[in-house]
Amino acid sequence: MNDKIRSICFIVNPISGTRSKNALPDLIASTLDKGRFDYRILYTEYAGHAAELAKQCANEHTDIVVAVGGDGTVNEVARSLVHSKTALGIIPCGSGNGLARHLCLPIDMRKSLEIINHCHIEDFDYGIINGLPFFCTCGMGFDAFISLKFAQAGKRGPITYVENVLKEGLKYKPETYEVSDENGSHHYKAFLIACANASQYGNNAYIAPGATMKDGEMDVIIMEPFNALEAPQIAADLFLKTITHNSKIKTFRTKQLHIHRNEPGAIHYDGDPIMTDADVVVSMEHLGIQIVTNPNIVEDVAQPNPLLNAFSDFFNNINNVRVDIEKRGHRIQVINKLMLRKLSNL
Question: What global pTM score does this model have?
Answer without folding.
Answer: 0.83
